[in-house]
Amino acid sequence: MNLHSSHFGKNFLWGVAMAAAQNEGAYNIDGRGLSIWDVFARKQGKIKGGDKPYEACDFYYRYKDDLMLVKALGFKVFRFSISWSRVLPDGIGRVNKEGIAFYHKLIDECLQLGLIPFVTLYHWDLPQALEKEGGWASHQLLKWFTRFVTLCTEEFGNKVKHWIVLNEPMGFTSLGYMLGKHAPGKTGLDNFFPAIHNAAMAQAEGGRIVRDIVNKAYVGTTFSCSEVLPFSDKKEDIQAANRMDILLNRLFIEPTLGRNYPHDGFVLMDKLHLHVKAWKYTDRLKFNFDFIGMQNYFCLTVKHNPIIPYVQASEVKAATRKVPHTALGWEINANSFYRMLKRYWLYGGVKEIIVSENGACFKDELKNGVVNDEARINYFQQYLTAMHKAQQEGVNVKGYLAWTLTDNFEWNEGYKARFGLVHVDFKTQLRTIKNSGYWWRDFLAK
Question: What's the CA gap between 403 and 421, in Å, rounded?
Fold first, then answer.
């Protein structure tokens, strides 16, 4: 079958996604406060190549040109996030009028071009001023977050109807508050457990605020997901895969759907449940979102490893198993993506699914003005075919947002990990549409 966008339905949402901290730059311009990533990047050895997000893709000044690229490639949706520290430099209190004005201009430009603005409220860039007070591990987090969400929805809700509350809560809580690999670089269960509970509470409370303030809101939240497969049929490997699955795929969606935190005999979950009882309010974890944003990049194969605390599991790398993988070593497996779509749909309470991120990093080369990224085109073809199969089998997939429009600051990977449909020369900020971008243009053409 020669797949085309029309096969997914007339009202299917096709778009691209990006994030403020990875694209905007202008980190100290027009009253913006510092974010945790601005500070984290200063620490030696935290970002590959010593890269910093201070200029990134210069989207703050080039947003009109980049939105023209979105339009030229045929997309209808533009997903972006609001920098918390740009609108509230201190996290709470004083509102930065210049920051508010920027997002009004960005939204207005989307609407003028016929693009649907799809706003992510929190995409990993907490104001540093709030991190000093404990960040996502603080008992005040929910108060801070509700203030931020209320400000954004009151300011932009008459123009923006499509909202995402949190981007990948498992990502920023585990990497930022347990493993220390991402900002703010904290470690340990004493940080991880409160960050989990605060994030789970925040996504539900954020959903309630959006629905209360925005007329005819379409509101969801996003979860990263990775099918976890045991390396062998040994009991120990199967149990290791189950423990990893609880953390990666169940920890946040199940309380959202009213099932509370998963357990299944996992000792780490015993500790979380004891911790949460002290914090209480588990009845506030549930919220009936209009859609669930599913973000899938790879599957994992794991084996039992008693050296790793609690999880007692470690990844068996795709390269080791000699299976297809991206430049970051992430396994390419469209069948796994299909299975995760089916699995999330079979959860009771999921109304609709938006694939809110999906994409791949390869070692792109710009030669004579051309980026021939055939591997990325093949990736998209495989994953869209898998999504179409799931849709034909009854999974209510309503949209797909490619990650990402332009190469950007890819968190601790810096600028060398390229996911964009558009190549960026970070010295000159010159944009060059890759062949995958042109492939999308043809795929989306009427």
Answer: 8
Separation between Cα atoms, residue 190 and residue 193, nearest integer Å: 6
Respond yes or no on whether the N-terminal peptide bond of residue 306 is cis (omega within 30° of 0).
no
Number of residues that make up the chain: 446
Catalytic residue among 24, 205, 331, 357: 357
Q: Measured between alpha carbons, how far is 170 from 195 in angstroms, rounded to an integer? A: 10
> Tell me, what's the pLDDT at 277?
79
Q: Quote the pTM value.
A: 0.98
- pLDDT exceeding 70 applies to what percent of the chain? 100
Catalytic residue among 131, 168, 205, 254: 168
Structure-token pair, residue 336: 């796994």
The residue type of 271 is K
- The two tokens of residue 267 are 């000792």
Mark whether 131 is an active-site residue: no
Contact 401, 412 (CB under 8 A): no
Q: How many other C-beta atoms can be found within 10 angstroms of the C-beta atom of residue 19?
A: 26
Q: How many CA atoms lie within 13 A of 6 on its CB side?
A: 5
| CA–CA dist 390, 369 (Å, integer) | 37
User: Quick one: pLDDT at residue 281?
Assistant: 72
Query: Which residue segments constitute the domains of the chain, with CATH numbers given?
Result: 5-444 (3.20.20.80)
Q: Is-catalytic flag, 254? A: no
pLDDT band at 317 (very low <50, low <70, confident <90, very high): very high
428 prior amide bond cis, ω within 30: no
Helix axes 374-392, 435-444, angle to 10 degrees: 30
Sorting pLDDT into bands at 50, 70 and 90, what band is 282? confident
Contact 206, 321 (CB under 8 A): no
Average pLDDT, the chain: 97
Q: pLDDT per residue over 394-427, tens digit each? A: 999 999 999 999 999 999 999 999 999 999 999 9
